[in-house]
Amino acid sequence: MTAQRNPSSHPDRTEALLPRPDRTTASLRAAVARLTPAQLPEMERQMEEALSLAARTGSLAPLTAFLESWSVATEIARVPATAERLRTAEYTARTAAPGSPQWRAAMEEIGAVQGEARRALAQD
What we know:
Shape: globular
Region (Disordered): 1-23
Protein name: DUF6247 family protein
Radius of gyration: 17 Å
Number of strands: 0
InterPro entries: DUF6247
């Protein structure tokens, strides 16, 4: 006799793991802490770099770019199937010969995943 799986105990990999966070440092930090905690140090480093550059230049552009970058990363990480698509494409891009058909396909897939995330954020 085999055990029957309860479908409700296995989340749909195409469903978001948490609601879309606001585009604020606090909301994005909380989302990253839940979704990809190993990336928190890099996020903090980039945030400090953006703040420093904004202060030196008197421009909000570095902060806007930081928020956009981490909003896209979080949008991708929220959906397990999408995050897996990106990880697979990134792995192929790192391991395939640059310029090969596999490398080009991987680079196109990376761009597609990021573009889908940007479009989803623009609709919000």
